Amino acid sequence: MLFKKFKIPLSVVFLAIGILLGTQIDKVFSNDPLRENLNKLNDILTFTEKYYIEDIKPEILVESAINGILSNLDPHSVYIRPKENEDIEETFRGEFEGIGVEFQIINDTLNVISAITGGPSEYLGIIPGDKIINVGGNSIVGLSNEQIRNKLRGNAGTYVKISISRFGIAKLLDFDIKRAKIPLHTVDLYFMLNNETGYISVTRFAEKTDEEFNKAISELEKSGMKQLLLDLRGNPGGYLSQAVNIASLFIDGNKKIVYTKGRVTSFNESYYSEKYAKYSKLPLVLLVDKGSASASEIVAGAIQDLDRGLVVGETTFGKGLVQRSFELNDKSALRLTISKYYTPSGRLIQRDYKSKKDKDEYYADINNRREAEGNNINHKVESDSSKPIFKTKNGRIVYGGGGITPDYFVKSEKVTEFTSNLLKSDLFFQFISNYLLNKKDLIKKNESLDYFINNFHFSESDLNNFISYIQTKKIKFEPELYNRDKHYIEKRLKATIARNYWKNTGWYRIMLMNDIQINKAMELFGEAKSLANLK
To answer: Is 294 a catalytic residue?
Structure first.
């Protein structure tokens, strides 16, 4: 009875409280600047889509609004469209699904540069110089790179029929290729530079970089490696965790390798090396340049701050911001900067971007550096700068706020505009493709890469034929510039042949010969050993 008496009044009370809370919450949110501005943005998009003089797709309006928002943030916070996001994820996963060929489109025709080792195309005998004419019974002549890639790729286990034109064979060769998972290696090259010096090149830091690196360094160790040259030139970065894993191979004693700080405290993290590092006693020199960024700078910064080795080359890019990727409903993504990373000494590597008018100026700024070559072990080159000062483990002064400045400045090899034009037109590959058509016995069965490197040389007649060839492509021949770059031109032509037979190993073994940055690095292992107090 008592319960029944109060049932209706209590309901009324609860309803009144709900209404009151609702009105108060609405007032709270109505004073929220973000909500107010979202309503404004929604109105503008709606009015534009409904009343603008021309039809315009809503997704174009939304993307424009997103890019407008991000233009007011840092240069590394970006919106990524669905297809681009898929390609980026594929790159960092370290594999894709397809037939496994590297190709290049020349005169509207797909030319096979090489079949990827271990892939289905290599297994079926597809070779460099083959021209893929049809895919799935349809001509691909004239299609773009992306269109061809979409036709050749597909789920592992599915089949695709391709038709190939091969020199010396009149009819097309048909292949039914079973697509497979194709590895994308990040440690694409490793070999012994001499009897005691190992060389490893890391092109980016992806999902399996540490696995690949451990395999490479283990094989070099078996070959007698006593010191290591680690090449991070042109490495744009990648996963922070992978950079920590690589640095930890050389740094022991639970030392701090990198730490991050953000506005949201949950993004603050510190990363340390293991107590025991397998290669903590291995003399180490790193190569860097302006293309070395992000995760590359984490490795270089840790090695430099802890005086674990020497850094040689040119000042790195200067990216000290950490991004997290947020996937959106349509598989696009927002890559948003959430924190900054700092080297063991406390250096922020990120260079100035707030004083730049836009992203183009920010990215172009790295080309305006004027760096004198020579010894910079005590970093006196930067002594007149306004950058913040820090100290390494041994007390050397280093500077923050502008990338990793090397301990020895050595500029990379530069070619003239004449040779740059040859490279842009890809005339080296085209000439060698034709050159090899008439020299099928150029490489004998038992000849090794070492034999080729030491014994093969182009004749003057060969080089004159190359000059004649480039003139047929309507590129003006400039004798003075050609003679200035002649050594480089011969080296690149020879490397293109080597790639045809020995793939990337052949290419890089020749292209790295007489590399001025490598030559200088090879002179510095004694100093690197002394700096790290190695016996």
So the answer is: yes
User: How far apart are alpha carbons 179 and 362 in whole angstroms?
Assistant: 42
Which structure tokens are listed for 268?
């603050």
- How far, in Å, CA of 381 to CA of 366, rounded? 17
In angstroms, what CA-CA distances link 438 with 126, 441, 442? Answer: 19, 9, 9
CATH 2.30.42.10 fits 95-183, yes or no: yes
- What's the token pair of residue 474? 């309507």
- The one catalytic residue among 319, 340, 491, 503: 319
Residue 305 bears catalytic tag: yes
Strands (E), 232-291: 256-261, 269-272, 284-288
Q: What is the pLDDT of residues 33-84, one digit of tens each?
A: 778 888 888 888 888 888 889 888 888 888 888 888 888 899 899 888 887 7
Give pLDDT, residue 12: 40
Catalytic residue among 114, 121, 292, 294: 294
Q: Tell whether pTM > 0.85.
A: no
User: Measured between alpha carbons, how far is 321 from 70 in angstroms, rounded to an integer?
Assistant: 15
Decide: helix, strand or coil at residue 391: strand
Out of 74, 188, 305, 515, which one is annotated catalytic? Answer: 305
Phi, psi of 350 (to 5 degrees): -60, 130
Average pLDDT of the segment spanning 480-491: 94
For helices 33-51 and 2-30, angle between their N-to-C axes, nearest 10 degrees: 70
Q: Which fold has domain 189-412?
A: 2-enoyl-CoA Hydratase; Chain A, domain 1 (3.90.226)
Tell me, what DSSP letter sits at residue 198? E
Q: Which helix (H) or strand (E) holds 521?
A: helix 516-522
Cα 86 to the chain's mean position, in Å? 16
Q: What percent of the chain has pLDDT over 90?
A: 46
